[in-house]
Amino acid sequence: MSKRDYYVVLEVTKTASEADIKKSFRALAMKHHPDKNPGNKDSEALFKEAAEAYEVLSDPEKRSTYDRFGHEGLRGQGMGGGFQNAEDVFSQFGDIFGELFGMGGRQRGAKAGPRPGADLEYVLALDFLDAAKGTEQEIQVPKHAFCETCDGSGAKAGSSPVTCDTCKGAGEVMQRQAFFQIRTACPRCQGSGKTIKDPCGSCSGSGRQRVSDKLKVTIPAGVDDAMQLRLSGKGDIGDRGARNGDLYVTIRLKEHGLFRRDGVHVLCTVPMSFPTACLGGRITIPTIDGDIPYDVEAGTPSGRVVTLRGKGIPSVQGRGRGDQHVQLVVAVPKSLGAREEELVRELAAVHDTKVRDKSFWEDLKTKFNF
Predict the structure, then answer these.
(1) Residue 217 located in a structural domain
(2) Element (H, E) at 194
(3) Sign of CA dihedral 137, 143, 146, 150
(4) Measured between alpha carbons, how far is 307 from 259 in angstroms, rounded to an integer?
(5) CATH value at residue 43
(6) Domain encompassing residue 91
(7) Contact yes or no for 28/46 (Cβ under 8 A)
(8) 211 touches 232 (CB < 8 A)
(9) 318 & 363 share domain
(10) Do residue 13 and residue 58 come from a single domain?
(11) Per-residue pLDDT for the chain (370 aa), expressed as one digit of tens each?
């Protein structure tokens, strides 16, 4: 079944502000919340659909990708996968539901236990040609690893974490409001169910240390500026027994001295001599795959745009290649040799074109000594 447009799902326009998007999601979440519609599969589906739409449209990078490429663009970058159940929604947007129901933390059905790691972002500056043709890049990502001294326990050598007195090891506390039953992480142990009396000196009881993780990233041909690549499980570490977060590599394209980009199409400007424009001739046109010869037709005006089919950027979704649009311009020399000037003056005379007399420039040179 095809997915509905995210703007339609959230009942907003494509020009809606972040505040409007959040307001609409809050209203839909209240309307279709599972606790207000127990056993109603349709409401649960609408609840998950609204959360999926909000996840994309509330993130500027994901929203930009969606606006340009739609659902297919999100799938190509490992985004917009949706939520398996309502608990995934509560886990993802606990802050939103905290605002809705008057308290923060995890919501209905959220289970105590190890917390997953945080997602990380790495901004990768990429050369134009590397983005067009694909490449492999080595990056170093600052992140957390388990402390080597205490092996992640956070406790000093010879000691161990003890059961939290507040939650009795459950990792959560329960509160009720109206028809909602809300579980929140224990404020003392932050959901772990354990506290540390004698902290490790190396990590001050956190059980973590900062490291620089070296990774090789395969960049597919055709990536564009602001696109993201998701590396599953390469984000920050979670608690023991929990999954790591994901790493999102955001592409930033460097400017190229010759080529410009318009989606999958390449734009450039190539000079030709005046005789070539008039009489025709062969010139060399650079492409992302290397130089190729091109035969200019006689009488080609300066500024004409010619198209080289299939010489553009490969589609990142693997659907062919774009074109290269080349603007041909007549190159005007800054200075002329004596014979060249003589020929140009003869041509001007043939066309009855008035040009400055040669003696005019000689007089200027003598007067101003240049």
Answers:
(1) no
(2) strand 194-195
(3) positive
(4) 14
(5) 1.10.287.110
(6) 1-105
(7) yes
(8) no
(9) no
(10) yes
(11) 578 899 999 999 999 999 899 999 888 988 888 777 888 888 888 988 988 889 889 888 889 888 888 887 777 555 555 666 666 666 566 555 555 544 333 444 444 456 789 999 999 999 999 999 999 999 999 999 999 999 888 899 888 889 998 888 887 777 655 445 567 778 888 777 888 889 999 998 888 999 999 999 999 999 999 999 999 999 999 887 789 999 999 999 999 999 999 999 999 999 999 999 999 999 999 999 999 999 999 999 999 999 999 999 999 988 899 999 999 999 988 888 888 888 888 887 888 877 767 655 555 555 556 5
Pair 348, 322 in one domain: no
Are 7 and 101 contained in the same domain? yes
Number of domains in the chain: 3
Contact 314, 321 (CB under 8 A): yes
30, two tokens: 């209240």
Whether 241 maps to a domain, the answer reads: no
- Same-domain status, 345 and 324: no
